[in-house]
Amino acid sequence: MSDLLAAALAHAARGWHVFPLRSDDKRPAFPDHPADQCTGRDPRCRTAGRHLGWEPRATCDPDRIRRAWSVHAYGIGIACGPSRLVVIDLDIRKPGQTMPPGYEGYGSGLRVLTELAARHGGTIDPTYTATTGRRGTHLYYQHPATGPELRNTAGMLGPMVDTRAYGGYVVAAGSTVAGRPYTVDLDTDPAPLPEWLAPLLAPAPLPPQRPVVVDLGTGRRAAYVDAAIRRQVTEITTAAPGRRNHTLYVSAVALGQLVAGGALTEDDATSVLTNAAQAAGLRPAETARTIASGLRAGARRPRSVAA
Fold first, then answer.
1. 3-class secondary structure, 21
2. How big is the chain by its Cα radius of gyration, in Å?
């Protein structure tokens, strides 16, 4: 058994969902195409009947893991959302890197995080810790069992401090990137996300929702389109955590087909999908990108509705 296969199986045994990265690289090995360029020829996309990105491909299934890592020396990615992890990514200051005002003398994200904890009356307790290829630090924590679904952040807590949660992944220990190894520094179970830190990572409140009224007219065609819209809205608003953005994409593809077939306007489809995404707790930026991508994909397969 190769070292990479053994490491991938060990991560999966903890309940962490892993997926292949390109050898000695941070980028996912699969899929090799973006959502709006999916042709359905990829075996996983074809089986699912829709585009599958790296997050839904991540798995704890040892048989799937053995099949993948037995044929190629893939790096190992851990999908944080499905694994119920929040990983704090602490970088080391790069040569010549300019710090924002107030942080001029700081050399690492660990110092930034330590002082942030002190200001909020908290501590950084021992948890599963990995050292990155560039000598940074990954602190693994359990995603809170209650409260909002946490997403990725970049510099929100301070310079050289990023986080990965739903929609994000980390390079796992046992992998290398550009020849530099990722290693385990403290091998223990992830601690709960510190109580002082969780509120700082909580997403901002959503803007007030405005009702969306779509004038479809009357008759059989209008009834069909109305039912299709209601079905997709229900799918989005009832999707499980970690599946909401993917469900939004699938619904955007479905309504995009109706737009291309002339049964629905693009503005109405966008409004309906945006409102449903906000109700599901998705953030505006990712919502806009996902909807646009799904509508473009649906436009390639128009669906007409008889009057």
1. strand
2. 22
Question: 158, 112 in Cβ contact below 8 A?
Answer: yes
* Dihedral angle of Cα 22, 25, 28, 29, to the nearest 10 degrees: -10
Cβ atoms of 280 and 235 within 8 Å: the answer is no
β-pair type (129-131, 85-90) = unpaired
Q: 186 with 126: CB under 8 angstroms?
A: yes
Nearest C-alpha neighbor of 85 from the set 3, 163, 148: 163
Q: Is the peptide bond before 31 cis (omega within 30 degrees of 0)?
A: yes
DSSP, res 83? T
User: pLDDT tens-digit profile of 184-239?
Assistant: 999 999 999 999 999 999 876 655 555 554 545 566 767 777 788 888 888 888 88
Distance, CA of 147 to CA of 203 (rounded, Å): 10
Dist CA 67 CA 215 (whole Å) = 51
At residue 129, the pLDDT reads 98
What residues pair up with 110 in beta bridges, in sequence order? none
Close Cβ partners of 257 (under 8 Å, ≥ 6 residues apart): 298, 299, 301, 302, 303
Alpha-carbon distance 305 to 307, whole Å?
6
- Tell me the pLDDT tens digit for each residue of 47-91: 776 677 898 899 999 999 999 999 999 999 999 999 999 999 999
Q: Which of 116, 107, 164, 166 is nearest to 139 (CA)?
A: 164
Contacts of 115 (CB under 8 A, 6+ apart): none
Global confidence as pTM:
0.74
According to DSSP, the residues that pair with 74 across neighbouring strands are: none
The vertex-44 CA angle with 299 and 26, nearest 5°, equals 95
Determine contact, residues 143/85, Cβ cutoff 8 Å: yes
